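I am hoping you can look over what I have pasted underneath with an eye to the fold:
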Amino acid sequence: MDTSIAQPLVLLADDEPLVRDLLQESLQDAGYEVVAVSSGAEAIDALGDQREFIAVVTDINFGGPAASGWDVAVRAREIRPTIAVVYMTGDSAHEWSAHGVPQSTIITKPFAPSQIAVAVATLLNRSDGAAAP
């Protein structure tokens, strides 16, 4: 009999390997299981895999014409309207009010990796009863 408790699942999307690795480690240290991808298109594909993501942490600009972090968040909310969304950006914060999904948050670069875990937990504590780890 498996008595392990599943960790809450977070989707992390960032095209910078060092940043992605640091954030994945920080989120795992905070008690989350993390699926890390390097593009908006990969994030949208992962969202379609029927996994029970409780949060999406996404960069906004992936350096190409493909899906942006704005697109990732919209798709995530189409699948699960209550999913927590944390955007990360170095230059697009001014677009958040026009493109960001409601009840999301934005963290501007540079930031400490632990700020992302705190942002996820804060959003989860405000949502529909989903619990932070």
